[in-house]
Structures are given as structure tokens and as C-alpha cells.
Amino acid sequence: MEKKETRILLAIAVFLLTCQGGHAKALTPRGDAAPPRFLSDLYHLMLTDEDSGECTGTFDCQSAGLGFHRDPHDCSEFYMCVTGRPSCHRTCPWGLHFDTRYNICNWPWALDTQCGNHGEVYSPSRGGVPADAPACGMPALRSVLSYEPARPKIVGGHEAVPGSWPWMVGVQLSGGHYCGGTLISDRWIVSAAHCFFGRNLALFEAVLGEHSIQTEESYEQRIELAEVIFHDDYDPKTKRNDIALLRLAEPARLNQRVSPACLPEEDVNVGSGSTCVVTGWGDTEEPETQYDVYQLMSDVLLEAEVPIVSYWSCRHRLPGYDVDRTSQVCAGYTEGGVDTCQGDSGGPLMCESRDGHWFLYGITSYGEGCAQPRTPAVYTRVPAMVAWIRAHTGDSSATYIPRAVPQAAATV
Questions:
Q1: CA-CA distance, 192 to 364, in Å (whole number)?
Q2: What are phi and psi for residue 364, nearest 5 degrees?
Q3: What are phi and psi of 223, to 5 degrees?
Q4: Residue 10: count of CB within 10 angstroms of its CB
Q5: Distances (CA, A) of 187 to 124, 246, 280
């Protein structure tokens, strides 16, 4: 009897630690398994007919229905129900929990289950931030960087999972996509100054929560711009300090599809060779004429991984450009093939910290062509701009990650 009671108490303890203590658990690898380095290491769980070794008869598929179902006693695991086969028990890797909404393994704080409910809409400017508000740089739905060659490109990239980059902003000019931007709070967007310099502010509109440009999606938010603030030392010729702050005419409604990216502290330095991510709706190949710029833009949000290039290597590869070591950073492959392009300007170059937060490290600025060999793209270096951003937003809801996040030169 005592052994039975001990087993019951142990089961209850495991259940409570798994479901209610999910935040800490998600940052602790299981056994000797290493945590995923990039989002490409995560994956969609697709229904297959391969394995019946884990099949048991303990889960009632008849009442639950076909498909995937979360284990009611362990939020990190799930059951598969397939016609004519007993239920198959599966386990998510590295502290991830099964998310029945999207049929993927997801982070505990992103689940709309007893393991955590973070789906409420809120606006810090309208009366404070609730305890379950989405944290900066923590998407509710994780991206899956696919490597299927048939899928569309950002120039060498792939279609993003809808909602996986909730801080991504599409900036439209007279109703058409023009540039990208990054949401950093419910009132402010960071973008490139060259997108707006010398143009009429009234013609611009920010679209938040967007995935397809051609499709009007229910979770999109279209908000006019109330103000554009250019960096005091922006140089239109050299593109130095190519950054602008966009103040929204009304606060964004933050939720699982619209939430801010983190801003780094000023001393954050991502080492050369580290892999970061770019996103945008820009051209999928280098345009030959000005007319091609708009014809080659992607309808859906695209993503790609690019390595950071050292300052000296960038200066060597771009001899005709005066790349500034302090305010600019370069990224791209020596062999080319993956790059941002026209229409991606103002969008983010984002890196993942060791604690799982994504932060804005660069702003897409310029390049010599698109995805050419030995010609990396140049981005405005955000850590050098954080003090300026703080001084001009005056917004207490603008988000920052702690100074202690960077751990080494080659990775953060």
C-alpha cells in the first residue's frame, strides 16, 4: 500500500513539474541531448506510417478522434491516432511540449493548454502588461526552416511558417509592399531610413501580423504612421546610420501573431560565422530592370539563415563601399546564393540568444546586387543604435534583453 501511494505521489509531482513548471523545464535539455541551435533543428510532426514500435492501447483513439492528441498526464508528450492501428505514443525533444493547435512540438509558454495560456490580446500603452503577455523575441509558433529546393526564395531562402516571426512588419507605400520593419513595442517600429527619406509620410501604412501580401488575413492589423524619426547622422549617400523609428498612429494589439522582437544591449557583439536569420517579402532573384523589382517580389513572407561576416572580410569583399565598423555589420555566404534583395530593406537581421530570445541585430540596408558570390549584404548594426532608440522613443514598453545574455564571441 505504501509503495502504491509513493508511486501516486511521484506521478503527481512529475505532472506538476512538467505542466506548471514548464518555463524552467524548457531551458533544460533532456539527458545528454543538446538544445537546438537554430530553428531549422525543430520540425513539423507529420503523420507517417513508419513506426508501430511505440504503439500501445492505452489511449482511446475512438473517442479522441484521428490525428494528434496531447497526453493528458504529460504536456511534453502526445499520441497519434491512425485508422486501423493502435495509438502511438510520441515524445517531443528537448523540453518542448506538444501543441495540438499546430501539430508541432512547441515551447511550454506558447501553449494554449493547462501548461500555459498566453493568447490574450493586450496593449501596454492601454494600461499595463499582464503577467501572461507574450515576451519579446519569443514567437508563439516556432519557425521551421525547410530545405526543400522547390519552395520560393528570399533569394535562396524559404517560406516562413505563418506567425513564426510576429514582429515582422510590412511597410506599404500607396497600397503596395515597399519595405520591411521590426516591431519593438506596441507603438514603435524600427526600419531603414532610406525607405522614407524624402517621401510623403501620409502615403505609408504599416501591416502587422501579415504573411501573404495578396490575401487579406483576419489577424492583420493595418495602422497608419504618425511620425518617422530619422537618425541625426543618417547619410543618404553612404547609408551610414540607415535607421528610422516609425511611431504608429494607434497602439498595436499584441497577441500571438503580433508581438515585439527584443533589442540587444549596446555591448552585444555577434561573432563572425554565427548564423542569424533574415526575413522579408523582397525579390526572389536579382532584378534586371526597375520594372522587375515589383514583379519578382514574394507574395508570402520568406526566411533564410545567413552567417555574420567579419568587418575586415566585408571591407575586402566590398572595396567600393565605405563600410563603418561601428554602425554597420555584414552577413552572407562566400559562395553567394542566399541574400536579402530589393523590397527587404528595413527588415530584420535577427539572432537567437542562449536563453531562446530572438533579438534585432541588424536592419537590412544595402548590397552589391543580390546573392552574388563574395558580396555580403550590409546591415545597420542595432547595438550601436540602442541608446538613440531609447532616447527618441521614450516608451517604457520598448523591449530589451539583459546585458548578461551574450556568452561568447561566436554565439549569443
A1: 7
A2: -55, 120
A3: -135, 130
A4: 10
A5: 9, 8, 21
β-pair type (221-230, 204-208): antiparallel
Pair type for strands 188-191 and 358-366: unpaired
Burial of 59 (0-12, 13-18, 19+ CB in 10 A): buried
169: β partners: 181, 208
DSSP code at position 406? -
How far, rounded to the nearest angstrom, does the alpha carbon of residue 328 sit from its chain's CA centroid? 21
Looking at the predicted structure, is the pLDDT value of residue 129 above 50?
Answer: no
- Kindly report, residue by residue over 368-380, the tens digit of the pLDDT: 878 788 889 999 9
Residue 360: in which H helix or E strand, if any?
A: strand 358-366
pLDDT band for 87, please (50, 70, 90 cuts). confident
pTM of the model: 0.68
Query: How, if at all, do strands 168-173 and 158-159 pair?
Result: unpaired
Tell me the average pLDDT of the chain.
Answer: 75
pLDDT per residue over 8-39, tens digit each? 444 444 333 333 332 222 222 233 333 333 33
Alpha-carbon distance of 129 to 112, in angstroms, equals 19
For the residues 164-186, what does the mean pLDDT come to? Answer: 94
CA–CA dist 245, 153 (Å, integer): 28
CA distance 116 to 114: 5
Closest-CA residue to 138 (of 168, 164, 170, 100):
164
Question: Is 321 or 207 the better-scoring residue by pLDDT?
Answer: 207
Residue 356's pLDDT is what?
A: 77
Cell triple for 171? 511597410
Query: What is the set of active-site residues?
Result: 194, 242, 345
